[in-house]
Design brief:
Elements: H1 22-25, E1 29-30, E2 32-37, E3 43-48, E4 51-56, E5 59-66, H2 70-78, E6 80-85, H3 91-96, H4 107-110, E7 115-116, E8 125-126, E9 131-144, E10 150-165, E11 170-171, E12 174-175, H5 177-180, E13 183-185, E14 192-194, H6 209-220
Antiparallel strand pairs: 1-13, 2-3, 2-6, 4-5, 5-10, 6-9, 7-8, 9-10, 11-12, 13-14
This protein binds flavin mononucleotide.
Flavin mononucleotide binds at residues 31, 44, 46-50, 64-66, 69-71, 95, 98, 100, 185.
């Protein structure tokens, strides 16, 4: 990409495009379907695509809430939550959960999903989800910008203390991501990406620079539609 072929903007000054491209660039993103329970025992379920894994030893995940939404409120009060895996078959239910339900009304029940008990947290998990991560709160970061001004975004970090995997998606001891068919958030408001077995490709990880050069040369001489290298 040569400079003259590049569109550049400084977000503080504005993108100058019909729609903000930021979320289309950091895409596709997994969706954390966050279930919580409030101190009165009422459930809550909402999708968050500013969501990902932060590290694996110990397993830590994080999501970010624009404003102190009900999920954050419940996590602040109880110190726990569950991140449920969103497969494509659950797309409509996930989307329905993003509506503004009154605080205390359980979206999981409202959209016709089945609450399943967790082992270590009081919040329910989505029984229909291929996997669910029980988490205990590590910290909530109230995000400031470069000027030290509040962004009114809250990043919730949770350590995974329990992992549920539907046995149907365990193949030869591996979680079969392709079969579980994660729904990912793509660029603009209504856009999603669908990942299935066809999109899984394998890349050998190089150790040394020499390995890296060999893999690169092999890649260049390979049909790029091939699923392994
Ligand atoms: C696919 C998808 C991803 C979303 N990601 C986020 C997100 O990352 N952060 C956020 O604040 N809201 C996000 N939303 C909107 C929330 O789901 C919505 O505001 C919801 O009502 C919040 O529920 P709660 O108040 O029960 O936590 C997303 C919605 C959808 C459909």
């Amino acid at each position: 990409m040569r400079t003259e072929d590049t569109y550049f903007y400084d977000p503080v000054k504005g993108h100058g495009l019909p729609h903000d491209p930021f979320k289309a660039i950091v895409a596709p993103r997994p969706i954390g379907w966050i279930s919580t329970r409030n101190p009165a025992g009422q459930g809550n379920l909402a999708p968050y695509s500013f969501f990902s894994a932060m590290c694996d030893h110990p397993p830590v995940i994080a999501f970010s809430s624009a404003g102190r939404k009900d999920s954050v409120r419940n996590i602040e009060a109880t110190g726990e939550f569950v991140a449920n895996f969103v497969s494509q078959s659950l797309a409509a239910a996930m989307n329905a959960c993003s509506a503004s339900f009154p605080y205390g009304e359980d979206e999981m029940v409202a959209v016709g999903l089945t609450p399943a008990v967790c082992r270590q947290v009081a919040a329910a998990r989505v029984a229909e989800a291929p996997a669910a991560l029980e988490c205990r709160l590590l910290q909530i970061v109230a995000l400031n910008d470069l000027d030290g001004q509040s962004t009114d975004h809250f990043v919730v970090f949770g350590q995974v203390t329990g992992v549920h995997i539907a046995r149907a998606y365990l193949k030869d001891g591996r979680f079969d991501t392709g079969a579980a068919a994660p729904l990912m958030r793509a660029g603009y408001l209504t856009e999603y990406a669908a990942v299935g077995p066809e999109q899984i490709l394998h890349l050998e990880r190089p150790d040394t620079p020499d390995d890296a050069r060999k893999l690169l040369a092999a890649w260049k001489s390979t049909d790029h539609r091939s699923k392994s290298l």
